[in-house]
Amino acid sequence: AQLLEVGSIKVHTKKDVPLVPPSHKHQWVRLADPHRSEIHLRQESKFVLAWLSLCFAHEQPRSLRNAPRMHCYSAADAFADTDKMGIGGWLSTSTAFVWFSEIFSADEVRAQWPQLHGSMQPYIGCFETLAQLGLAQCSWQELRSKHVRFVLPTASDNTSAESGLNKLFSTAEPLGTFLRLAATWAHLHRVQFEVEHLAGEKNVWADRLSRGRLNFLSHRSAERVRVSLAQLASASHCVTLHDPSKNWPPCLRKAQTATLR
Predict the structure, then answer these.
(1) Backbone angles phi, psi at 151, to 5 degrees
(2) Alpha helices in the chain (DSSP H)
(3) Rounded to whole angstroms, how far apart are CA atoms 180 and 191?
(4) Of 44, 138, 184, 207, which sits most exposed with the smallest number of CB within 10 A?
(5) Do residues 222 and 167 both lie within one domain?
(6) What is the rounded CA–CA span in Å between residue 35 and residue 166?
(7) Do both 137 and 11 map to the same domain?
(8) Inter-residue contact 111 to 214 (CB < 8 Å)
(9) Rounded to two decimals, what is the model's pTM?
(10) Which domain holds residue 101?
């Protein structure tokens, strides 16, 4: 076999091969069989390519004007143990405050994602991504009558979820599965993630919510939003019913009247 690449180092001659490994971690090595010209892909890679082709086939026209940035403070966090995991987050604007907190058992998680074997703790990056998706769904419910599309600024103390959500893509599994889920939902609902890093010791509220410690928000229980795993895993549009006394913004009523004409 012909050696093509060690980690991110291109290999053209033997002198290009590093004598000392660039890192103590496992390194990717790319090899080529000089007797075969075709490229062999894993099943996971084939699935990702099929998903990308589906996304590009239905790409919507992009506006040259940037989407409005939501004026808010928000953060989300996740917690994982051997047999359970939790997600939580909060969002505060000048006129509203919403929060969520959910704890799920390992069996409930595997009912949606059977590829997550053993302890839940190694998949903390996946659950951090799921927590940010839950926060985005809460914010969309709050703003869907005011903005067609918007940028959601939020914070995370997990670097893999932070970088993954800003790109909405990763080849590492199972994190890639959860990022594709977030990307699909964001595309359908026209929400753009903007995640910045927040030190863990400062992400206090979201950490408490992810662990089910709700005493500090007991006086604001009416503003809690319930989030189910099925809702997060579907990444589809949701329908809500409201009674006729709902006070919708005048701009939305005018748009509805114009549509019905």
Answers:
(1) -100, 130
(2) 43-57, 106-112, 124-143, 159-167, 175-189, 204-210, 229-234, 250-260
(3) 14
(4) 44
(5) yes
(6) 40
(7) no
(8) no
(9) 0.76
(10) 73-234
